[in-house]
TrEMBL record:
PROSITE patterns documented for this protein: HTH_ARAC_FAMILY_2
Cross-referenced InterPro entries: HTH_AraC
GO molecular function, one term: DNA-binding transcription factor activity
Protein name: AraC family transcriptional regulator
Origin: domain of life: Bacteria
Coiled coil ranges: none
Domain HTH araC/xylS-type: 223-279
Length: 293
C-alpha cells in the first residue's frame, strides 16, 4: 500500500490527554471531543466510529446529544439516546454513535482490571454494553459526575477525575487486588494474577476469574492487544510517508499471513486495513483512530 497523505484540512476536534504518572496503569487516557466551535459536519461524519476495545470508559456529554447506531448505518441514524453520563464496557466488536448536532464530550478510559478494582464490578456484566452511569455506580460516583459536568474546562475535568480515582486505586494496589501493568504487559499480568490467586486451581476457574476482571477471555485480550500494536506501527509508517506492506506487517505482528491480518482488522474495526488507513485520514467520523497512541 502506498503512503496515505495526511489531510491537514480536518479540524482538530479531539485530544488524547495522558493521565498522571501514578495512574498510568489505571487510566489509559482521557479524551476531549469538541465540535462546538466548527461548522456542522456532514451527517456521515457525525457518526463516531469506534473499534473493538478491552477498555472500560465513562463519557460525559458536556454539551450536545448522542445516540447509539449500528456501525453500518450511514443514512439517517436512529437509535438509543444516551444519558448525559454513560458507562461503556469492553467491546468485542466495532461500535458507533451519532451526534445530531455539535457536541462536547469528555471521556476517561480505564484498563478493565482497574475498573474492577476501583468499582468492584464484575466487568463481564458490561461487555458490549453502554449504560447510564446512575444505573451502575453509586452516590459517590454520581457526585463526581456532577462536578465533572460543572468544571470550567477539560483540564479541570482531568484533575477532578484523577483526584477521585487515585485514592481508590492506591487502596486497591495496597491490597494486592490489581493484576497487570501498563500497555503491553497488562494482558500477561492478568493471567498470572488469576492463576496465582486462590481461584487458579483449575483452568475453568482461572478463565472465569479473568472474565470477571476484564470482561472477556484472555485470548480476546491478546487479539485486541496485537491489533492495537499493529495499527500503531502502521500509522507511524504512514505518517512518515512510508509505504506499507500488509504481508510484512502481518509477519511482524504475529499473524499467520496477510489474510489473517485482514480478517482480524475487519472483525475489530469493520474495515480492511487499507480502508481503515484511508478513512482515518479523510473522514472526521474516524477521529479516534487519528488521536490514538
Amino acid at each position: 500500500m502506498q503512503a496515505v497523505p495526511l489531510n491537514s484540512e480536518l479540524p482538530p476536534t479531539a485530544r488524547l490527554l495522558p493521565p498522571r504518572t501514578s495512574l498510568a496503569s489505571c487510566i489509559r487516557a482521557h479524551i476531549d471531543r469538541d465540535t462546538t466551535g466548527i461548522a456542522l459536519l456532514p451527517a456521515d461524519e457525525r457518526i463516531n466510529r469506534f473499534p473493538a476495545s478491552p477498555m472500560c470508559a465513562i463519557t460525559w456529554f458536556i454539551e450536545g446529544q448522542c445516540r447509539l447506531v449500528a456501525p453500518e448505518d450511514v443514512a439517517m441514524p436512529d437509535g438509543q439516546w444516551l444519558a448525559s453520563a454513560i458507562v461503556s464496557g469492553p467491546h468485542t466488536r466495532p461500535s458507533a454513535s451519532f451526534n445530531p448536532g455539535p457536541v462536547h464530550a469528555f471521556m476517561t478510559l480505564l484498563f478493565p482490571q482497574a475498573w474492577h478494582a476501583v468499582t468492584g464490578m464484575d466487568v463481564s456484566t458490561l461487555t458490549n454494553r453502554v449504560v447510564a452511569m446512575e444505573d451502575v455506580l453509586g452516590p459517590e460516583w454520581m457526585d463526581l459526575s456532577q462536578r465533572v459536568m460543572q468544571a470550567a474546562d477539560d483540564e479541570a475535568r482531568v484533575a477532578i477525575v484523577e483526584e477521585f480515582v487515585e485514592p481508590r486505586w492506591r487502596e486497591a494496589r495496597a491490597s494486592g487486588a490489581v493484576p497487570g501493568n501498563v500497555v503491553g504487559d497488562w494482558v500477561h499480568g492478568i493471567a498470572a494474577h488469576a492463576a496465582a490467586s486462590g481461584f487458579g486451581r483449575s483452568v475453568r476457574k482461572v478463565e472465569r476469574k479473568i472474565k470477571s476482571i476484564v470482561g472477556q477471555p484472555l485470548r480476546g485480550l491478546k487479539r485486541l492487544d496485537r491489533a492495537e500494536q499493529s495499527f500503531l506501527a502502521t500509522r507511524a509508517q504512514l505518517i512518515e510517508g512510508q509505504p506499507v506492506s500488509w504481508a510484512d506487517r502481518a509477519v511482524e505482528a504475529g499473524y499467520s499471513d496477510q489474510a489473517h491480518l485482514c480478517r482480524e482488522t475487519r472483525a475489530l474495526t469493520g474495515m480492511t486495513p487499507t480502508e481503515l488507513a484511508q478513512r482515518a485520514q479523510d473522514n472526521e467520523g474516524y477521529w479516534v483512530y487519528r488521536i490514538w497512541s
